[in-house]
Specification:
This protein has about 130 residues and is of the alpha+beta class. The chain has 2 helices and 6 strands. A hairpin with a 2-residue loop joins β5 and β6. The two termini are about 15 Å apart.
């Protein structure tokens, strides 16, 4: 799986400076950082997975914003941002991976001092269904 992840290349660049942060249920502000598509070299109709990467410096404070606090945010991020990306750039995608980190890390790089969480959702009837990552 790691080899497959490392083989992907970035299909779109970092989020623009003008892009607004997303305020989630926990009160954490997530800034869209990067969107990756699988397969990375496919046209929009052939993309079957979207990897949504967001940065939230607040989650570095594990006492206040540990995983149990931000876990409900993943569903909201998938529903509000992930499904928008699918509609605009990958209309046949069936999976959305939501990744949040306390700071930006290049895809595939190891960063042991950066808090990072991932979750997988299946796209079913225009909704995000938790995939149990």
């Amino acid at each position: 799986m790691r080899l497959a992840a490392l083989a992907m290349v970035i299909a779109t660049g970092a989020a623009s400076a003008e892009q607004a942060s997303l305020r989630a249920l926990s009160g954490v502000d997530y800034l869209p950082y990067e969107v990756l598509f699988v397969p990375s070299d496919a046209d929009a109709a052939a993309r079957d997975m979207v990897r949504m990467r967001l940065v939230a410096p607040q989650i570095a404070d594990q006492e206040q914003f540990g995983f149990e606090v931000i876990e409900p945010d993943f569903q909201m991020l998938c529903e509000h941002e992930g499904l928008r990306i699918v509609a605009e750039s990958a209309p046949n995608a069936r999976e959305i991976v939501v990744m949040v980190a306390s700071e930006s890390v290049p895809f595939g790089d190891s960063a042991p001092n950066v808090v990072q969480y991932f979750d997988l959702f299946n796209v079913e009837d225009d909704t995000c269904v938790w995939g149990g990552l």
